[in-house]
From TrEMBL:
It is found in: Membrane. GO terms for molecular function: monosaccharide transmembrane transporter activity; symporter activity. It is a multi-pass membrane protein. This is Major facilitator superfamily (MFS) profile domain-containing protein. The keyword Signal does not apply. Keywords: Membrane, Sugar transport, Symport, Transmembrane, Transmembrane helix, Transport. It holds the Pfam family Sugar_tr.
Length: 504
């Protein structure tokens, strides 16, 4: 009954009654602050690497190239430096490793303690980065930040999916992605201000990452554990009490019965990662891995990491570069709000397909402009074309923000059964961080060698992933998590063949 403030979801003819209660909204908002940590880090690193004082202290080779302005490959290769790329990408390699430990803690300790562990790693990493005296201290700080992101990206999407009523699960889950975009925008604004502080502005930029980490700590202390996790760990009475509290009704017996059954099946699985390889779990596993690879192959993190560097490459001044990065960050936030509003109305599938067309068009237009106006030795972009490049990047970012950004995290968190959910989320985080590391480590080298062709490279990937969605991604809108197999996978034209319960 949508008009009466209730969210209902059927399961084999049983209606799960659920009010959209304040405790659900507050819990989801507080938990989603984990996205602020991730987003701030994505945004802040691109800005500080465009600051001369930071480059001079840690990357003097790059600083000399920037200052001299005479490098023969200035416009595409001036920032091509493996140590600089390692500064950015080491975080994601650490997150990749940490997510395996996070899979254990989310299952054995719960979603809430895992978020607290994440914030602890992040706070220590921030202190080391802000006080860094040499490259080793800087990289160690980045590694600890990566551990925090690995734990947060494992726990937060699971928490959001499990605590939210089915009817608004998509929108509440995307709060995590919305906070990532807020973090990016906040970092861009901070960088724009601190770039004017000579000598130590970069320390302030890196140090302010402690704000989102403290917010996550407070949030994790205030929120309740999910009923799914409590039942999974044997706290049945507490699980039922929490379920009544978050659903705003005493009539939780049908949903609680399904949680008990799901937990019973989960306990029969002694090796959840091995269980992921069973034939009946193959559709979820393939879709999850594909979504994480494709998300990074859109080129979004290359653009968000290196936005100021990219705009500098196009001939913008340093202030104009940071300003343009702020504009793209703002577009990112506003477009994610579009996804929150529409994901549970129009569905996941429509958003993916529309965005695929928009992103492909943007990449191609940018490639054409750069191919004609920027060479190894000079840039000849007029003010009008420069504005058009920024508009196309914003058009691309908008499409990503209401599709591949939030949905590639939402879908893995809702398609796995309880017995493999933590393991499935771990695989999603692991693959995402692996390909984030690869793109972050390779982007400046690719920009140097492919030049404008890097946008053609990403546009080809966008075409492939759009076709994948069209033919192989089922719609999961308004389907209860525990009903995915029956109502989604067993009815899909291709994946149904893997859902024979008697075949492992």
């Amino acid at each position: 009954m949508a008009g009466g403030g209730f969210a209902t979801a059927s399961a084999n003819g049983v209606e799960f009654e659920a009010k959209i209660t304040p405790i659900v909204i507050i819990s989801c908002i507080m938990a989603a602050t984990g996205g602020l940590m991730f987003g701030y880090d994505i945004g802040v690193t691109g800005g500080v690497t465009a600051m001369p004082d930071f480059l001079k202290k840690f990357f003097p080779v790059v600083h000399r190239r920037v200052e001299s302005g005479t490098d023969k490959n200035k416009y595409y290769c001036i920032y091509d430096n493996q140590r600089l790329q390692l500064f950015k990408s080491s975080l994601y390699l650490a997150g990749l490793t940490a997510t395996f430990f996070a899979a254990y803690t989310t299952r054995k300790l719960g979603r809430r303690p895992t978020m607290l562990i994440a914030s602890g790693f992040f706070i220590i990493g921030v202190v080391l980065n802000a006080g860094a005296q040499d490259i080793v201290m800087l990289i160690v700080g980045r590694i600890l930040l990566g551990c925090g992101i690995g734990f947060a990206n494992q726990a937060v999407p699971l928490f959001l999916s499990e605590i939210a009523p089915t009817r608004i699960r998509g929108g509440l889950n995307i709060l995590f992605q919305l906070n990532i975009t807020f973090g990016i925008l906040f970092a861009n604004l901070v960088n724009y201000g601190t770039a004017k502080i000579k000598g130590w502005g970069w320390r302030l930029s890196l140090g302010m990452a402690g704000g989102p980490a403290l917010l996550l700590t407070v949030g994790a202390l205030l929120v309740t554990e999910t009923p799914n996790s409590l039942v999974e760990r044997g706290h049945l009475d507490e699980g039922k009490a929490v379920l009544r509290s978050i659903r705003g009704t005493h009539n939780v017996e049908p949903e609680f019965a399904y949680l008990l059954e799901a937990s019973r099946l989960a306990k029969e699985v002694k090796h959840p990662f091995r269980n992921l390889l069973h034939r009946r779990n193959r559709p979820q596993l393939v879709v999850t891995v594909a979504l994480q690879i494709f998300q990074q192959c859109t080129g979004i993190n290359a653009i968000m990491f290196y936005a100021p560097v990219l705009f500098n490459t196009l001939g913008f001044g340093s202030d104009a570069s940071l300003y343009s990065a702020v504009v793209t960050g703002a577009v990112n936030v506003l477009s994610t709000l579009v996804s929150i509003y529409s994901v549970d109305k129009v569905g996941r599938w429509v958003l993916f397909l529309e965005a695929g067309v928009q992103m492909f068009f943007s990449h191609v237009v940018i490639a054409i402009i750069l191919g004609n106006k920027v060479t190894d030795h000079y840039t000849n972009i007029s003010q009008g074309l420069a504005i058009l490049v920024v508009v196309m990047i914003c058009t691309y970012v908008a499409a990503f923000a209401w599709s591949w950004g939030p949905l590639s995290w939402l879908i893995p968190s809702e398609i796995f059964p309880l017995e493999t959910r933590s393991a499935g989320q771990s695989v999603a985080v692991c693959v995402n961080l692996l390909f984030t590391f690869i793109i972050a480590q390779a982007f400046l080298l690719m920009l140097c060698h492919l030049k404008f062709g890097i946008f053609i490279f990403f546009s080809a990937w966008v075409l492939v992933m759009t076709l994948f969605v069209m033919f192989l991604l089922p719609e999961t809108k308004n389907v209860p998590i525990e009903e995915m197999n029956e109502r989604v996978w067993k009815k899909h034209w291709f994946w149904a063949r893997f859902m024979d319960d008697h075949i492992q």
